[in-house]
Amino acid sequence: QLQLVESGGGEVQPGGSLRLSCTASGFNLNYYVIGWFRQVPGKEREGVSCIGINGVSTYYGDSVKGRFAISRDNAKNTVYLHLNSLQPEDTGVYYCALPSSVAVPATQCGLTEWLYAYDSWGQGTQVTVSS
Fold this sequence. Notes:
four-stranded antiparallel beta sheet
């Protein structure tokens, strides 16, 4: 299993911003589609955003379109998720993940139907939006 590490979570007020990072341990992240998912207790894991290998193809969930932005820095072996205009409903644990053996289309990679393909997950980072 490939090891991923998330960082950058925290507590912010509504309207605030955070930048989450997903880095790889011991392998090159650049060869994989990378997805960001969030989990809220009592709810199903939700695909937030993901990015293709080329760094151009992306996916955003309807609830975050126009507020979140995903990018990758191949030189730093890192994928970022920029969270802007945060709202209380964005609260949750955010995970990055990758599909190591299934060719997931980057423009659809956050859809629930592709969740099964993600077989390497980070430990998660907590994001709390509260006034």
